[in-house]
Specification:
The chain is an alpha/beta fold and about 140 residues long. About 35% of the residues lie in helices and about 30% in strands. The chain has four helices and six strands; from the N terminus they run ββαβααβαββ. The protein has a six-stranded mixed beta sheet, sandwiched between helices. α1 runs parallel beside α3. The protein is globular, with a radius of gyration of 14 Å. It starts with a strand and ends with a strand.
Amino acid sequence: MVSLGVVLRDGNGRVLGAGKNTMSFQGGVTHAEILAICFGVQLGKEFGCSIIIIDSDSLNAVEVVASSDECYLPYGALIEDLKEDIRSFGSYSFKHVRRNLNDIAHRIANLYLTLSPWEGVWVDTLVTYPQLSILILLFKQ
């Protein structure tokens, strides 16, 4: 079992919402991190964002998704689909962040993970955000 957590922030770093999705999973850590990035990108699309910034504490996931090379991992088709989704934004970027440097986002994500079996997305207000920063979190259960 794996829980995917996403924290949505505006261009100024203000937390706008959080999302949680739990699924049965038996793959590796990088594969799970890619699934979490997919979840965050989908939320960015649903919010109508034109700019997306993906922050992940998984250096491997950031490098694989940011690479222009075709991916030949067993879940390479998922990564190629993800890259295509990301390119649909007007602007996008990837950042590897250390988990301990974003304490507030992790506290919020952990709060939502404790609300099990709650799954879904919490948002502060329902408006369209032109720029969204998505912090990708992964929690194995």
